[in-house]
Amino acid sequence: MLSIDFLAGFTIFLLALIVAAGMVPGMLAGLQSATIDNDGVAYRTSVILAEDPGWWFDEFTMTGNSRWEGEKTAMDRVKRMGLAVSKETPNVLSMGKIDAFFNETHYQNNPDVYRETVFFSDYPYSFNISLKMEDETLTLGDPRPQGDHGYIRRTVMVKEPAEAIFDVDTGTTTSPPTNGTFAVAMNFSKLLGQPAAYRVDPFGDRINITLTNLNIPSGNLTGVRIYRGNTWVPPAVPAENIRKDTNITLSLEPGFFSGKASETSQMEIRFLFDSSETWASRTFAYDDTTAPPPHLKPAVLEVAVW
Q1: Cα separation of 105 and 151, whole Å?
Q2: 264 is in which domain, residue-wise?
């Protein structure tokens, strides 16, 4: 049988243990400062932005991918707004994702979008995110306070939009000639087969195509159409995507080919002209040999949280 002295001592020990356990949370509360917590949030946010490509998901079709920058309307499908070109290229950012992220029309009127897709928190953080490049600085959020706040600064590289210039005198003559057509053929498999940091991504990059050395007035351009193989994929390219001066430049925003092509498609962009002159149409191959790899330029990403 246990002695009364042992039971009394054991009871006192248990009571002391319970009291001590109840005091521990209060003792540690003062060691967790808002500054330390905000520094952690700033660091975590910078990792998401600089090392993750983000995620888009459609609950209706149960499909998803990392090319969230092409979404223009159903913003609830954007689940995570990372800026990296891919998971394999940390700290190499996509210009298409950057443009979408800092777009005032799509996002800045609703800060909760950032809290849900970048901070992943219901806590109403105030924040300032900026990207400083050689030629411009992009900023969103509130002005950075003078007092305590979490902060992280990291060096990144920015993948610029794809640029391709075709001299119409060097293209392959179509046989038989199609009256009034210049075409740019894009092999998506070949383009996407290159290293992620230096490839042209037709789905995620802005595609710029310029035709030079035209022998007919650029004013005779009647339209631009996209074909998958020999099948026209409507609608025609909007006029605001086309700039005409001494040359003709076409600019296609990220997401333009979404729903029009797959990663293995053979696409053709046809420039249609109305001219009474007799001239042979030409076709240009847009691939890793004719279009130079996108340029990477240095930048600084800064995240402040309070």
Answers
A1: 26
A2: 162-286
Give the 3-state secondary structure of residue 163. strand
Whether 177 maps to a domain, the answer reads yes
Q: pTM of the prediction?
A: 0.79
Are the CB atoms for 288 and 194 separated by under 8 Å?
yes
The pLDDT of residue 208: 93
CB 236 within 8 A of CB 223: yes
Cα 285 to Cα 209, 233, 267, 291, distances in angstroms: 12, 19, 10, 9
The residue written with tokens 């193989």 in the block is 229
CB distance 44 to 36 below 8 Å: no
- Looking only at the bridges linking them, the beta strands covering 150-159 and 296-305 are antiparallel
What are the C-alpha distances in Å from 242 to residues 29, 99, 221, 222?
A: 61, 19, 10, 11
Averaged pLDDT of the chain: 84
CB 191 within 8 Å of CB 202:
yes
> Cβ contacts of residue 254 below 8 Å, gap of 6+?
67, 69, 70, 96, 97, 99, 100, 203, 204, 205, 206
Task: Kindly report, residue by residue over 111-167, the tens digit of the pLDDT.
Answer: 778 888 999 887 888 999 999 999 899 998 889 998 889 999 999 999 998 889 998
Quote the tokens at residue 69. Answer: 């920058």
Q: Beta partners for 299?
A: 133, 156
Question: What tens digit of pLDDT does each residue of 115-124 get?
Answer: 889 998 878 8
CA nearest neighbour of 117 among 155, 160, 69, 154: 69
Distance CA 185, CA 290 (A): 11
129 and 166 in a common domain:
no
Asked if 131 and 191 sit in the same domain, the reply is no
> Which residues, 6 or more positions from 228, have their beta carbon under 8 angstroms from its beta carbon?
260, 261, 265, 266, 267, 268
Tally the domains of the chain.
Answer: 2
Q: How far apart are CA 167 and CA 234, in angstroms?
A: 27
Tell me, yes or no, whether 119 and 201 share the same domain.
no
